[in-house]
Please model this.
Amino acid sequence: MGDILTGLRETRLVAIIRGSDPDAAIAAGCVLAQEGVRFIEVSLTTPDPLRVIRVLAAEGSARIGAGTVLREDDVTASVDAGASFLLTPALAESVPFAAAQGVPVIAGAFTASEALAAMRQGATAVKLFPASQGGPAYLKALRDPFPQIPFLPVGGVDADAAEQYLAVGAFAVGVGGPLVGDAASGGDLGALRARARAFVGRLALSPSPSR
Model:
């Protein structure tokens, strides 16, 4: 589990693929990896998500995770397909089950009580979701009593917000629409490539997040 946190602290970014076309999702994942995105989440709400995970994991340029993992069987199927980490939108039965299997899981939470419960269930980190409801100031307030909890803000995170979250102590950010756009549903891959290049470059130049 430690290598996931270490890697994410270095790259600071999880790109979130959630689309309507599995082939487009695969193409988008390949572009993201080519542009230096090293951690990619494939939401299980994407059609044929296990095939998308399997193909991207076999490609080998990025660590592929499964998102919207809610049930125990989601954990098993995702790991069998090649997912090396999991994310949930909320506390769910998948969290303690994945932890018991030794699978890194970033558990969704919004309140202080939920964040603490997630870590007690064995989560590797907490996905602050939906982060846009509180913003960077809310994350800062959560980190004051819980400086030891690694927080990954997700939801409404664009490049400006990403820098702000990192500045108040997020160990990385999860970015969907502002980065991936409609590429996972058949949109312009050239535009995705440009966004990915700009996003990766900007985060690389940002000050290191506080611990």
In short: The two ends are 18 Å apart (CA to CA). The first strand starts at residue 13 and ends at 17. The chain has a mean pLDDT of 95.
